[in-house]
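As the next step, I needed to go through one protein, both as residues and as discrete backbone shape codes, included below for the reader:
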Amino acid sequence: MKLEISDWKTVPYAEAWDRQTACFDALVHAKQAGEEYVNRIVLCEHPHVYTLGRSGKETNMLLGEEQLRAIGASLYHIDRGGDITYHGPGQLVCYPILNLEEFSLGLKEYVHLLEEAVIRVCASYGITAGRVEKATGVWLDGDSPRARKICAIGVRSSHYVTMHGLALNVNTDLRYFSYIHPCGFIDKGVTSLQKELGREVPADEVKQRLCLELKGMLEGRQ
């Protein structure tokens, strides 16, 4: 198995989408042609941006174009599942571009694996996180009125090859979530590692912990 980890640092969303799509298309082509390919885990951070998935509702974006410009954000309609979410400074975005068949993973199992990796990262900081039934992502106090999301997940899969991925709030400015109904929810909040711990968390440290979890879990399925 070839698994390459790349850190694209801070990159505009449109550029990252283009680069991600090129990697995805190359992997699909190589897989179909029986050629060698590389599985990738891409880490990055985006300037303020909102993305609306295929099944998302326009009404979950609460601002118009002029208001978006005023807060320095943009909106993209994209080809992943899920509804609307926010990406921005202080948030760790991870785009695994993988051949799921190589890891004997179905799409549902793959999403579960992403969630589990983040749950373990949260646990390493003493934060108990988990899942909410019929809602992807990672949550704190998910079965209570205090339910709040710390990580959003939305993926696209074609020929059992994945793109898009997860967004973990590390030192994120959570005010930007107030301009949307995050992932379509109007009765649940959002949080970050910083908010839960009461201190800023080193971004590189979180990247390392997430990569170790993902790499270990994927290699364990070989």
